[in-house]
Amino acid sequence: MSMTRTILGLFKLRIGFMIMLTALVGLIVTPGTAALGWQQVVALGASVFIASASAGAFNQYYERGSDHLMARTRNRAFVTGALPESPAWWVLMAAMLLMAVALTTWMLNAVSAVFVFLGAFFYAVVYTVWLKRRSWLNIVVGGLAGSFAVLAGGAAVNPAIGPLPLLLAAVLFLWTPPHFWSLAIANEAEYAAAGVPMLPVVVGVPRAARTVLWSTVALALTALLPLAFGAGAIYGVGAAAGGGYFVFKAWQLARAPSRKTAMGSFFASLVQLSVLLVASILDSLVR
Known about the structure:
CATH architecture of the largest domain: Orthogonal Bundle
CATH topology of the largest domain: Tetracycline Repressor, domain 2
Distance between the termini: 46 Å
Helix content: over 70%
Order of helices and strands: HHHHHHHHHHHHHH
Shape: flat
Largest sheet: none
CATH class of the largest domain: Mainly Alpha
């Protein structure tokens, strides 16, 4: 494994990029964005990206003793020895988060900085430390990490957060469970062997698959609500198309639960979120 791939994997930079994009979408859909300078927009993106990277590294370092139990995590850097264990990692992760919060406070405002902090805190501490191995609600509560990124973007423009960023934060909150539960159904045996109480391990695959379907329906309907608060036609088309596709794939999963249909639902969730974010950006630029 090259050092570049090792670093990408450690800090979960692909996930960090998506989290950063959600923060920028929260900023773009909030009225008054034009009053911000490009330096402030860059500061927001960089802060959320750095905070997310810090939380991603924390997750891997904290779970280095159990990641070998699952095929999808046993090749992580701390498991294989590609990176050495050292207390210096705690210092680095804390410094990264402190830098992200300080930059947001300096360039934007304290409310946005609080949301940047909460996003990292909920993923690193609430999800990874407190809930992942204790409750099937782990990913439900942990999903607030993505919602806080949207709120950080909205608060960067206006600390008194308006309806559009709030609704998009709700969409991110509702997106996370069916996204990860689909993956958990595909890897149910591994989660069970590792002792992680993901939903399909706790209630069984058929019931979990039905829960994914109804959760996806709730997500798709909620994603349409911004139309009542100023979102335009481009957003509406994206929300309807992406939501409809995810619901269809979740219906296939509920109808015939299997690894194939679970991965189909998982990838559909990525399509739905990507389409929604792009549609939000284009709709805001047109308006």
